[in-house]
Amino acid sequence: MFNPACPSTVSPFRIADKWGGLVVLCLEDGPRRFSELRVPLRRVAPKVLTETLRALERDGFVTRTDYGENPPRVEYELTELGRTLLPAIAACREWGAENFDALLAARDRYEAGRYEAGRYDSDAYLPTGTG
Amino acid sequence: MFNPACPSTVSPFRIADKWGGLVVLCLEDGPRRFSELRVPLRRVAPKVLTETLRALERDGFVTRTDYGENPPRVEYELTELGRTLLPAIAACREWGAENFDALLAARDRYEAGRYEAGRYDSDAYLPTGTG
DNA sequence: GGCCCCGCTTACTTCAACGTAACTATGCTC
DNA sequence: GAGCATAGTTACGTTGAAGTAAGCGGGGCC
């Protein structure tokens, strides 16, 4: 169970990286250009988007089509394999839509518990970034 | 879309951290002790397991019960909220079971393409660890 | 008194992800 | 020839997750 080659280590639990799943979502409705992806992704740094797209390409989730024009035009599109990710991603999104508030409430309770216990620490009220 | 408070940033895309999803799976069939979790999780460092469990506790996914005995006995158990993760995790696992081979094949093709292109680099044949 | 058990904690190191800022290449238009 | 547009690349630094190694606490047992 859970050896390094286990599918769970490459499953959509962590699609490529922080942005992988979001990029796949952005491509759900059809091909998109590099600059078109940057807008919904909160202007993610081009370096990071390039890395993400290369990883998705490597894993066979997207194809990259360079039309050799000028100014450059490159389109990214989901492959069939990439489309197989969509149900799992949908399940994750559905979970988020239904339970996000409960999660935040749990965090509030947790922080409140730390406060009541007298272990007050101003930093403790900040998200830890592990989410 | 995709602002910092967006549910997607706390969704099971990345449950707490690398181990969060696996811990939840280990707890699917009932409460487990700290040392019982370490076995299936490939003897993950106690530090890391503690951090993971604290994060899951913070988010309301697991409860921690200290029986105050000696030697210590502590049990971790999924909450109702924690159980809501299971369908999404199942979807991810199902994806892995069905498509893991296709993903590895895609990676092989990708590496082979790099080789054919003459950009041979021995390191390029190693997984990059982003999976 | 010394060792075991279990569930941690602490100190330190490593490494990949992420981000910022600036720069590049190419052809087109003004 | 200056500037614009697109799709990047390069250099650099920060952050945080993960791992290593060792120690702690306190009752039970010999």
TrEMBL record, chains A, B:
Q: Which domain of life is it from?
A: Bacteria
Keyword Nucleotide-binding recorded: no
In this chain the HTH hxlR-type domain maps to 6-104
Q: Which UniProt keywords apply?
A: DNA-binding, Transcription, Transcription regulation
Which Gene3D superfamilies does this chain map to?
Winged helix-like DNA-binding domain superfamily/Winged helix DNA-binding domain (1.10.10.10)
The UniProt entry, under InterPro entries, shows: HTH_HxlR (IPR002577), WH-like_DNA-bd_sf (IPR036388), WH_DNA-bd_sf (IPR036390)
Q: Does the keyword DNA-binding apply?
A: yes
Q: What is this protein called?
A: Helix-turn-helix domain-containing protein
Q: Which organism is it from?
A: Catenulispora yoronensis
